[in-house]
Amino acid sequence: MAAARYRDRHAVTRKKSDPGDALVLANILRTDRHAHRPLPQDSELARAIAVLARAQQDAVWNRQQLANQLRSLLREYFPSAIDAFAKWDNGLCRPEARILLELAPTPSRAARLSLAQLRSALKRAGRQLRVEAEAERIREILRGDYAHQPALVEDALGKQMLALLRQLDAACTAADQLAEAVEQAFPRHPDAEIILSFPGLGPQLGARILAEIGDDHTRFATARGMKAYAGASPITRASGKKSSITRRWVKNDRLNHAGHLWAFSSLTRSPGAKAHYDRRREAGDWHAAAQRNLFNKMIGQLYHCLQKHIPFNETVAFPSPLIAAA
To answer: Residue 236: beta bridge partners?
Structure first.
């Protein structure tokens, strides 16, 4: 977008050519070099972690997309399966759900499953606790009274579901393998200890944060630059007597997504973060705005800790009202 705006300085006819673009890029460096940041000098380990973290994030998004498609298909002809797996975290992505769907791809075949078959399938998926109770609960739901498609249509939908299930199996395997690779590589980085000291950040989220901000500590001159890059800080638009403050739309989407998860998980792990979120809600912010404000504050604290090479300190980051007043 910035390069496109530069093009209008040389021709207002909106013509475009490769030599013209080369001239625009050359003039950007010739006249406005000071207005642009140089490429970050990240270490080899940080770049490797970035590759793994982004690939794992893509795999998780792909897995969720396939799970949504599978749920939509099951809702059309096999609603009892959705009810049977709704109690579990990650639902259709769990090994138990995928093995049971492969064993019985249609409601007619699922209703004929015995307790022994259900117990065996749950054990093959790795379940060890409450196997008997879960098998009885699932059999009761699968034998419930639901509307059915005609037999031929049901069989065809079952084959379509199996094809989609194979894609979901591959996506789940890829996500798990990449997550394991991230957990092996991320702790080896010198900044990992500081990042993991923050509430709400584990190996996966911490690796995603590091992947996007890098380990070149001269990349951002101030914390404000990192906040803007993450899309956490607001943007002001003023013209004459009118001014408005809105969220940022131009940002690093991967870092912003990781920051959203970070702020949400920190609410249950940091009393100071929860108190800050509550104050923003009492001031009139909606949930997303209050969470974005919390992310803005915490990524500024992360910038300070990385620059000073110190871990996160709850009492310093979120001082009590009496200490702040003193």
So the answer is: 245
